[in-house]
Design brief:
Blueprint: H1 2-27, H2 52-69, E1 72-76, H3 88-108, E2 116-119, E3 131-134, H4 135-141, E4 147-154, H5 155-167, E5 172-174, E6 176-181, E7 184-190, E8 193-194, E9 200-206, H6 207-210, H7 217-220, E10 224-231, H8 232-245, E11 258-260
Parallel strand pairs: 2-9, 6-11
Antiparallel strand pairs: 1-3, 2-5, 4-9, 4-10, 6-7, 7-8
Length: 263
């Protein structure tokens, strides 16, 4: 029995020594030598011939995409530019969002009908030119995959929203009106009714702003947000197509929905 215990102890000691030696060997730095290699610089330029096989594969997709992007969907009576405190372009987009949601509300009844719409001028990345309008023009105007979201706000939160908009000299808005005095929103009305702090209002906007983008923190902290599944760019395209089907052209103007109070 004693002999067996000695054997066991020796075996343990041997294992410990092997473990220590192995760990020391493994932890030693290893110097790797790179194998011989050759490099070649290939300049990317028009001198490189097109790959005929790849071109044959890509051409049908490219041609289909080009045809879709170049499709004329309507006409504008004037060039629509973005600006502050309001602008023809931001008024046009905000108005159509409000009207398109009203129309879809009647058909689907999947969300609360909004009282007003807010769109950020910074998100309108290109003007709408005078004359024909193509799908490509709207992708340039709205290159983002933003979804339309409807947010529930109290009257007090709407006042906070408009105060923020006033502090940055306005933004895109429909369904409401307010003045800017000393960086604050004054004389606020929604559909020609004075703002009621105790009333609930529903605001249509982009998911980007709904998540607090461009410092719209009042949206980020809202308790209720309803996704519509509608892409804002698609709504713009559909709205212009609807106008065109009625032989109408785009026409937008300033109407003092956001204005500076001088007295």
């Amino acid at each position: 029995m004693k002999f067996n215990l000695i054997k066991i102890r020796l075996s343990i000691q041997v294992l410990m020594v092997i473990g220590i030696v192995t760990s020391l060997v493994c932890c030693q730095p290893v110097n790797y030598q790179s194998a011989d290699h050759q490099t070649q610089t290939i300049a990317i330029s028009d001198a490189i011939a097109d790959d005929a096989t790849m071109e044959t594969y890509i051409a049908p997709y490219r041609d289909t995409l080009e045809a879709r992007m170049n499709r004329v969907i309507g006409y504008s009576e004037q060039e629509l530019l973005a600006g502050f405190p309001e602008s023809p372009l931001s008024n046009f987009v905000a108005d159509l969002l409000l009207s398109e949601v009203h129309q879809d509300q009647k058909e689907t009844n999947n969300w609360q009908q909004p009282d007003l719409a807010i769109i950020n001028v910074k998100g309108l990345r290109a003007p709408i030119a005078q004359g024909k309008i193509t799908v490509r023009d709207i992708f340039q105007l709205m290159p983002f995959e933003n979804e339309l979201v409807i947010i529930e706000l109290s009257g007090q939160e709407v006042a906070i929203l408009f105060d923020y908009m006033a502090s940055v000299d306005g933004d895109g808005m429909a369904g409401a009106k307010f003045g800017i005095r000393d960086g604050k929103a004054v004389q606020i009305s929604i559909h020609q009714q004075n703002l009621n702090n105790d009333q609930t209002y529903y605001v249509a906007t982009s998911d980007y702003l709904a998540n607090g983008g461009d410092h719209f923190d009042v949206f980020k902290n809202a308790k209720t947000k309803m996704g519509t599944g509608l892409k804002i760019r698609d709504l713009i395209i559909e709205h212009i197509e609807n106008l065109h089907s009625q032989e109408k052209v785009i026409n937008s103007s300033l109407d003092n929905r956001i204005y500076h109070v001088t007295k």
